[in-house]
Design brief:
Blueprint lengths: L2 H16 L24 H9 L16 E3 L5 E5 L4 H6 L5 H14 L8 E4 L12 H18 L3 E5 L1 H8 L5 H4 L3 E4 L2 E6 L2 H6 L4 H16 L2
Parallel strand pairs: 2-3, 2-4, 4-6
Antiparallel strand pairs: 1-3, 5-6
Length: 222
């Protein structure tokens, strides 16, 4: 069995197990892929499926799966790359220095409680040495797509250049699109710096503040 077929089989078995099946119908692995498999339309069921996912190597390193947090009826979604060490340890967002900064950005500038917005990651498990690979992103893609389908955000705030690259597959310079609302696959997105970048480069906080003011203005018109 090839690695690709093995991954497809694991994906299907994880899904069947999460919805209560002990045995499933025959799986045509040659004609199936992650996107073709039907995922739950209820957010809690989807989260339970993701928490039992072992499709890629990152499942070996996690203590917890960081699926998502906040108001599922929110019109705005924040999208990070992957869980931090602190988030993985405490199984929650907005912890550690970068988490504290992000919470401050949302609550002090956007003037909304973090529980009133929705946040999730491109990749749901922590990675060793922040070594996210395209294969990890691809395994989580169907989960993220389903989250977006269920929540239906009117605006997705992309946190960081790497998330922008993974989410859009675009090659335009980050400086060219940062702070601008752009259309991608029928979704409105706006990019700004990730908190960890701002901690390393405090001189960029002014630009991030301007981005947040634009986001705040958009939110007020939703």
């Amino acid at each position: 069995m090839t690695k690709n077929l093995q991954n497809r089989l694991l994906y299907q078995l994880n899904f069947l197990k999460s919805i209560g099946y002990e045995y499933g119908q025959s799986i045509n692995l040659q004609n199936s892929n992650n996107e073709q498999l039907e995922l739950p339309n209820e957010i809690n069921q989807l989260e339970e499926l993701v928490k039992n996912c072992y499709l890629c190597q990152l499942s070996k390193y996690r203590e917890n799966v960081l699926f998502g947090s906040g108001n599922i009826n929110s019109k705005i979604m924040f999208l990070k790359e992957s869980p931090t060490v602190s988030e993985d340890e405490f199984s929650t967002f907005y912890v550690g220095k970068s988490g504290d900064l992000l919470k401050t950005m949302i609550e002090k500038v956007l003037k909304v409680n973090v529980n009133d917005v929705y946040i999730t990651n491109i990749v749901k498990c922590i990675s060793p040495n922040n070594s996210i690979k395209h294969e990890h992103v691809n395994f989580c893609k169907s989960y993220l797509d389903k989250q977006i389908e269920i929540i239906k955000p009117k605006l997705i705030v992309i946190l960081g250049e790497s998330v922008y690259r993974y989410f859009t597959n675009e090659t335009r310079a980050f400086s060219e699109i940062r702070g601008k609302v752009i259309r991608n696959n029928d979704l409105d997105i706006i990019c700004t710096y990730e908190p960890s970048f701002l901690l390393r480069n405090p001189s960029s906080k002014g630009e991030a503040y301007e981005d947040l003011l634009k986001i705040k203005a958009i939110m007020e018109q939703m």
